[in-house]
Design a protein that fits this description.
Rossmann fold; EC 4.2.1.46; 13 strands; NAD(P)-bd_dom_sf; single chain; dTDP-glucose 4,6-dehydratase; alpha/beta; binds nicotinamide-adenine-dinucleotide; 12 helices; 7-stranded parallel β-sheet; binds thymidine-5'-diphosphate; NAD; 350 residues
Length: 350
């Protein structure tokens, strides 16, 4: 089996669902269920023996040791993190705890477990760390995209904590020979995205008739990656990636925030028209985020050249699918909005 951390969050849960659609290899899903963890996302797996859910904190060394000893995974895929930049500005401590101390604890537990494996199991084992392009800092309008050799220059407490996590993973490969893989991806979007992040926030607030807040002048650029494409890239890196290497994952979709918000409004005008006017009428420019990075952009050519991976979705197809998903899965995000999702503590007590 494989061990996934953070598999009740946005990307981790998409990964677990996709994995079990394409494989009978079981998943041990280790998640603390912070505000971002939602077992409602995984309810289609209730009763499925291929999915084992363990509520645990990656900072808890004894719990990690026990889970590894009991389940003997062939790989650890590490998604768990505090992930929202705005929250990191208001409360950075949790980011240092989970993203730095948590990764360190998981690396230590993983190293002890890996050291005791047989030689063939040892060489097949992988520790794959899921990271972000935000570790590379901010680009100017004409700068080349981030490549795997771009120097780290994190600007927010979130990106600084993820950079520290990446450095620890690198050091565990270099110092102890732990077979690691690191992926750095751009902004994801798609189903089950927690509605405090830009794309789901705009869709759900638009439908509720609320203002759509765009920070600053709306000209900041993000490079959008459909979550299903991210999951397929991670599977490819796990299968074919070279131990110790890092891979950038991107969707080749650089867009300004205001373009993203306008496109979402236009899709909603088409798919769920208002009785009068356009959803664009709800857009409001608000005070900018402190230290707001201007532009992120990923050069994903290494992954294409060396492992033959390319995204399947364009921004247009991925965004349309995403809007359609939010329109047809209202109870998922309404349970998040009401807080009902926090009452789910195991897949059996729903
Ligand atoms: P998310 O915030 O939606 O989910 C994080 C999950 O981790 C939640 O289920 C949460 O309960 C769990 N978790 C948090 N702290 C934990 C702890 N101490 N122990 C165990 N579980 C814990 O995040 P996401 O958007 O799914 O991101 C997943 C990974 O991808 C993160 O490492 C993030 O840095 C990275 N990433 C995300 C994006 C993006 O656009 N969302 C982009 C690049 C990289
Ligand atoms: P976000 O989804 O928080 O991801 P990140 O900060 O990790 O890139 O934000 C994406 C972009 O959208 C970012 O430039 C900030 C901007 N933004 C808004 O303009 N309004 C909002 O309400 C939010 C949440 C984000």
């Amino acid at each position: 089996m494989i061990l996934v951390t953070g598999g009740a969050g946005f990307i981790g849960a998409n990964f677990v669902l996709d994995w079990l659609q394409g494989s009978d290899e079981a998943v041990l899903n280790v998640d603390k269920l912070t505000y971002a963890g939602n077992l409602g996302t995984l309810k289609s797996l209730r009763g499925d023996a291929r999915h084992v859910f363990a509520r645990a904190d990656i900072c808890d060394r004894a719990a990690m040791d026990t889970l590894l000893a009991e389940h003997k995974p062939r790989a650890i895929l590490h998604f768990a993190a505090e992930s929202h930049v705005d929250r990191s500005i208001h409360g950075p401590a949790d980011f240092v705890q989970t993203n730095v101390v948590g990764t360190f604890t998981l690396l230590e537990a993983g190293r002890a477990y890996w050291s005791a494996l047989s030689p063939s199991e040892k060489s097949a084992f992988r520790f794959l760390a899921v990271s972000t392009d935000e570790v590379f800092g901010s680009l100017g309008a004409t700068d080349p995209q981030f490549s795997e050799s771009t120097p780290y220059a994190p600007n927010s407490p979130y990106s600084a904590s993820k950079a520290a996590s990446d450095h620890l993973v690198r050091a565990y490969h270099h110092t102890y020979g732990l077979p690691t893989l690191t992926t750095n991806c751009s902004n994801n979007y798609g189903p089950y995205h927690f509605p405090e992040k830009l794309i789901p926030l705009v869709i759900t607030r638009a439908l509720a008739g609320e203002p759509l807040p765009v920070y600053g002048d709306g000209k900041n650029i993000r490079d959008w990656l459909y979550v299903g494409d991210h999951c397929s890239a991670i599977r490819r890196v796990l299968e074919k990636g070279v131990s110790g290497e890092t891979y950038n994952i991107g969707g080749w979709n650089e867009k300004t925030n205001i373009d993203v918000v306008n496109t979402l409004c236009d899709l909603l005008d088409e798919l769920e028209p208002k009785s009068s006017g356009s959803y664009r009428d709800q857009i409001e420019f608000v005070k900018d985020r402190p230290g707001h990075d201007q532009r992120y952009a990923i050069d994903a050519r290494k992954l294409e050249r060396e492992l033959g991976w390319k995204p399947a979705e364009t921004f247009e197809t991925g965004l349309r699918k995403t809007v359609q998903w939010y329109l047809t899965h209202r109870s998922w995000w309404q349970d998040v909005a009401s807080g009902a999702y926090r009452r789910l503590e195991s897949l059996n007590n729903e």
